[in-house]
Here is the input.
Amino acid sequence: MPPSRLKPGNVHVWVVDLATAPATPDVLSPSEHARAERFRFAQDRRRFIASHAALREILATYTGRHPAALEFMTLPHGKPALLSGDLHFNLSHSGELALVALAAGSELGVDIERIRAQVEMEAIARRFFAPSETETLLAYPEPEREPAFFRCWTRKEAYVKALGGGLTISLSSFVVSLEPARAELLSGVEPPWTLHSLDVHPGYCAALAVAGHPAEISLLRWPPNR
Here is the structure.
């Protein structure tokens, strides 16, 4: 497949169905194989292999290199990056879906979560969210509180992943919106970061954080032409 074109200012987000995506371990590195083997359950191992194989195959279409030949480095706090070039990427997976977000020359982060019942939302919010976010969350009526919780969680995680700060950034140190149609960083964040909701699949919540204001965000399905 020839390299895909990604213009500066545009973001591509690939949606990967892990239930049907080929889990091709031959493209993974020895360290990725070692990480896969540490999973206790076969289903989790399959999802890890399928998501990381898809990441390599997607990056290969943009770089023109073989998936197995791609080399990565680890930035401070553990964020992975390509060893060369200005293509930025981020991977997230939950349940049977994975997202691979890419931009040319712009840092970004993506997060997806399967919306699950019986999550201790109030306890988690009081521990990790900013007080104003917790207050907003608890003001939602019961049927709407669950999706609002996951909107808040994915928006915060996307931003933290974009910064590459890992556990060094407290989730309560900044505030995001919880409204369905308005994904925003409200306080505790310096420009030019922007947040964007991603409507990828019923039963899932996803968000994208980008340094700057992307001209276009494209949702794509992997593998293409399926």
